[in-house]
Write a structure and sequence with these properties.
Distance between the termini: 26 Å
CATH class of one domain: Alpha Beta
CATH superfamily of one domain: Transposase IS200-like
Shape: globular
Strand content: 5-15%
Number of helices: 5
Structural class: alpha+beta
């Protein structure tokens, strides 16, 4: 499979273990795998309204902060995806911050509050919609890319939501089948991978 985005760059995540936060990798023009999870695993993506709000937020941010969605799978309480960023731009956090902000604003307006907020979130004025951080991995080569594509597209089966990837509608798997990258019956056999990738 040809690598979407062309240029794949490797750099390790830099963690500051003495602090409660950590520094994100800055990889201009890189390709990234993400896991983004709802607060307390609240199944916020199970309604058409919530999925529409997410779609609109995603498109808004993609227009303002250009990126290419290489693959995606939307689960009831989390998102897996792969992005490629433009050359000279490695700002993943600002994009996720904006997607979360736009989604949260409309979700609260149109659907209602999420989970109960803890004291820390009340002090910060944060809604209980998203986990604060997200899992990020820089794709290092084509083998790594293909591995994460498989992980993303098999995820609904892994979580027991469907018997085979083709049965899950909120996934880029169907696009990859149309392009000939996967056969329609791919993923019907049990997968042996035990990786979690931010889950």
């Amino acid at each position: 499979m040809k690598s979407p985005g062309g240029r794949l760059i490797f750099i390790a995540l830099m963690y500051n273990l003495s602090m409660p936060d950590y520094r994100r990798t800055l990889v201009p023009g890189g390709t990234f795998f993400f896991t983004v999870v709802s607060y307390n695993r609240l199944p916020i993506f199970t309604t058409e309204s919530a999925r529409r709000i997410l779609h609109d937020a995603w498109m808004d941010v993609e227009k303002r902060f250009s990126f290419t969605t290489v693959a995606i799978c939307l689960l009831p309480d989390h998102i897996h995806c792969i992005w490629t960023l433009p050359d000279g731009d490695g700002r993943t956090s600002i994009r996720w911050k904006e997607i979360k902000r736009l989604f949260t604003k409309r979700y609260l307006e149109e659907i209602g509050p999420g989970s109960d907020r803890n004291l820390s979130r009340m002090k910060r004025g944060e809604a209980a919609i998203w986990q604060r951080r997200f899992w990020e991995h820089v794709i290092i080569n084509e083998v790594d890319l293909n591995h994460h594509l498989d992980y993303i597209h098999y995820n609904p089966v892994k979580h027991g939501l469907v018997k085979k990837p083709v049965d899950w509608p909120w996934s880029s798997f169907h696009r990859y089948v149309q392009k000939g990258y996967y056969p329609p019956d791919w993923g019907t056999a049990p997968e042996s991978s035990k990786e979690e990738y931010g889950e």
